[in-house]
From TrEMBL:
Domain Nucleotidyl transferase, chain residue ranges per copy: 8-146
Protein name, UniProt field: Mannose-1-phosphate guanylyltransferase
Xref: InterPro entries: GlmU-like (IPR050065), NTP_transferase_dom (IPR005835), Nucleotide-diphossugar_trans (IPR029044)
Gene3D superfamilies: Spore Coat Polysaccharide Biosynthesis Protein SpsA, Chain A
Keywords, ordered alphabetically: Nucleotidyltransferase, Transferase
């Protein structure tokens, strides 16, 4: 039985090194793409999914994010004096995220939904008895601005496995997911990547994937911005 998460976290602490010089003075999540910041886009998705309790972690230029969020209700900040990476950042924020499954969304990616929102589809697919993590996976054919080798293969039951060596996988991780707090049992202290926990869940048969049916946009460098903006404007005309 699926349950819609009531808590969510937006990962906004990264340095955005590949987006420099823009990110020398502004955090990457606050970079505007087609008129809206990437952070606002993530928060709007979570708001539309009726997520009532939100956590945003900060590290690089945290005062900018704090000021930007001042007008938004129900947001707790999780400041990191030392950058904790994805896993460490979520682990630090666990006391703010409750005891039930919660969304985690990267703030430096953009996605658009199909007929049903991706967050709703994740909630509908969640099976608490079987899952510790459910990742939204993007078919590389739906990824705008991405030309990498992909991340995962996935079978008809939603069971993923990682590509190896020089393999080219048909899907990539979108940066959108549902995680259960139990995934973090015995996790490393300090900074670590969520990949550590994905691999453990994979070995235990408790990592699953769901294929995204909308678009996904990779904004990796300043040079990529115009192409992504053009694609977004074409898909989302004013």
């Amino acid at each position: 039985m699926s349950t819609r998460p009531t808590h969510g976290m937006v990962l906004a602490a990264g340095l955005g090194l590949r987006m420099r010089p823009i990110t020398l003075t502004i955090p990457k999540p606050l970079v505007a793409v087609a008129g809206r910041t990437m952070l606002d886009r993530a928060l709007d998705h979570l708001g539309a999914a009726e997520v009532g309790h939100l956590v945003v972690n900060t590290h690089w230029l945290p005062h900018c994010i704090e000021a930007h969020l001042a007008g938004r209700p129900n947001i707790s900040l999780s400041p990191e004096t030392e950058l904790l990476e994805t896993g460490g950042g979520v682990a630090r924020a666990l006391p703010l995220l409750g005891e039930a499954p919660f969304y985690v969304v990267n703030s430096d990616i953009i996605w658009t939904d199909g007929a049903v929102s991706a967050l709703t589809r994740l909630a509908q697919a969640w099976d608490d008895a079987r899952m510790d993590a459910l990742l939204l996976l993007v078919p590389t054919a739906r990824a705008v601005g991405y030309d990498g080798p992909g991340d995962f293969f996935i079978d008809a039951n939603g069971v993923p496995w990682r590509r190896r060596g020089q393999e080219v996988a048909p899907t990539l991780f979108s940066g959108v997911q549902i995680l259960h707090p139990r995934l973090f049992g015995g996790c490393p202290s300090g900074k670590f990547s969520l990949n550590v926990l994905y691999d453990r869940a994979l070995e235990d048969g408790r990592l699953f994937g769901l294929l995204h049916d909308g678009r996904w946009y990779h904004v990796g460098t300043p040079e990529a911005l115009p192409a992504v903006e053009a694609a977004l404007i074409e898909q989302e005309p004013e």
